[in-house]
Amino acid sequence: MASSSGNDDDLTIPRAAINKMIKETLPNVRVANDARELVVNCCTEFIHLISSEANEICNKSEKKTISPEHVIQALESLGFGSYISEVKEVLQECKTVALKRRKASSRLENLGIPEEELLRQQQELFAKVSEAILKLMRLE
C-alpha cells in the first residue's frame, strides 16, 4: 500500500490482487508467503521500470500523457518485445470493454425507445406545459 510520504519504494501492487492472480494461474500449487511477497516486489519493480521508460519516451516525443504506444515502445526498448503482441491484444480488449460501457451508460440506449419517439414525447410534454402556463396566466 502506498504511504503518504510520496516515496516510490512504498508503492506496491495490492497483495490481494497478486494472490488472486497466483491462485488463478496456479490453482493446484501452494505458494509460500515469502514467495508471494517476492512476486509482489517483482511486479512492482517491473511496472516501475516500464512506466519510467515509457515516461522518458513520452518526454522525448514532447507529450504530456503516456500513451499505450509509449508503453509498447518501452517494452521493446527494454527487451520485452515478446510481450508486445499480447499487450496489443489486451489493449484492444480494454478498448472494446470501455466502448461497451460507454454505450451501456447511454440513457437513450438503456430506454430502448427510438430517438424519434423520445423527441415526439418531449414535444408533447412541452405542449402540455405551454397549455398549463397559458391556463395559469388566464386565471390571474
TrEMBL record:
GO terms for cellular component: ATAC complex; negative cofactor 2 complex. Gene3D superfamilies: Histone, subunit A. Keywords: Nucleus. CDD domains: HFD_Dr1 (cd22905). One of its GO terms (biological process) is negative regulation of transcription by RNA polymerase II. GO terms for molecular function: protein heterodimerization activity; RNA polymerase II general transcription initiation factor activity; TBP-class protein binding. It is found in: Nucleus. InterPro entries: CBFA_NFYB_domain (IPR003958), Histone-fold (IPR009072), Ncb2 (IPR042225). The keyword Phosphoprotein does not apply. Residues 12-75 form the Transcription factor CBF/NF-Y/archaeal histone domain. Belongs to the NC2 beta/DR1 family. PANTHER family: PROTEIN DR1. This is Protein Dr1. It comes from Jacana jacana (Wattled jacana). The lineage of its organism: Eukaryota, Metazoa, Chordata, Craniata, Vertebrata.
